[in-house]
Amino acid sequence: MSSELSSATSPPAQLPAHTGVHGGLRLLLALLMAFGPLAIDMYLPALPAIAAELNASSGAVQATLAAYLAGMAGGQLFYGTLADRLGRRLPLLMGLALFTLASLGCAQAQSVESLTAWRLVQALGGCVGVVMPLTIVADRVRGAGETARVLSQLMAVLGVAPIAAPTVGGAVQALLGWRGIFGVLAALGALAFVLVWRTLDETLPRSARQHPPLPWRRVLPGYAGLLAHRGFVAPALAGALARAGMFVYISASAFVFIRHLGLAPLAFSGVFAANALALVLSAQVNARLVRRIGPHGVLRWSLPGMVATGLYLALLGATGHATLWTLLPGLMLFLGLLGFAASNTTALAISSSQAQQRRGTASGLLGTMQFACGASAGALLGLAGDTGPLAMGVAMAACAALAWTVFRFSAPRAGQAL
């Protein structure tokens, strides 16, 4: 039994050549990674219209978002395993086909229960866009520093999605109704399917695939084995916890700015775009900076900087000085620092020796950890009731502090500790 496990997870005799990520491939990977935020953010302006047409409560309609997040978290483990068994291209095509068909199902839903079910299936297809780009980057790029640089460039393109998605979704709703939003998502899924089919070469040759395939009953123990290696789990968990601070911001920002500060929805959209832009710009800077001081050098100041910024936001809430012009700089700084932390923690995890042996499995586990930590942080924040600036700041600071602590005290080698 142990020999079966070791043979299925040992390093392959022949790894694919490292050829970099350039030009059209970079844009294609960014498009694939954008499915998650697009499918979440595009339909947010239409939630009231969906509730009205389907005669559903606001809570029932919000459950369609929870179903999507659940599918995104759980499905990545499945695709990670498939990627190591079958290569990257076939599972990617399967996921995109499922996303496209489920988007059409959402567009035709006649009840909120049907819409919720189709959203779950849509996520089970769309989550392939999180797993496979990371896996392909790991196939084609050598070293944590270069991986961090490529991921920063992908994040810069990806960052456009949350800026534009609510506006695009609102425009599509005005022209075609809320069902048209899912029609657009289906068209994007079909476009991505064609692009992958016509332009993407397989990055994992047969000689480098898991052989013999790990039995399905051994899949979960395989993930547990990966979690046992500090070289992977320390940066992976640190990155997931840091991103949880962003989930806190997304969950709380509407209550803080609209309910507590009285901003109009249009003004709030501007705040949301400004913070997303900070994330995009910092990722661009990181792509250059990481070549000079490496991922650990960047994390040495970005993670504690996130802690300090979260404490600043909490202090504003505690002292009653939370206004648009005091909160906005702090939030932009927090998300800007996240742009540095997210790319480098992901690069270190995916470039660790254990992750290199099982790149698809590692990518799936990374995504699941990120969504699980984010969902947990959002659920805990909900216990605060009427979320205000103080609760938001405390939760963001706590996520950043946990991320810094995990990475500082769980680094794989003493020389890598911050």
From TrEMBL:
Residues 25-415 form the Major facilitator superfamily (MFS) profile domain. SUPFAM superfamilies: MFS general substrate transporter. It is a multi-pass membrane protein. The chain crosses the membrane at residues 21-40, 60-80, 92-111, 117-138, 150-175, 181-200, 264-286, 298-318, 324-350, 362-384, 390-411. It is found in: Cell inner membrane; Cell membrane. It holds the Pfam family MFS_1. Keywords: Cell inner membrane, Cell membrane, Membrane, Transmembrane, Transmembrane helix, Transport. Belongs to the major facilitator superfamily. Bcr/CmlA family. This is Bcr/CflA family efflux transporter.
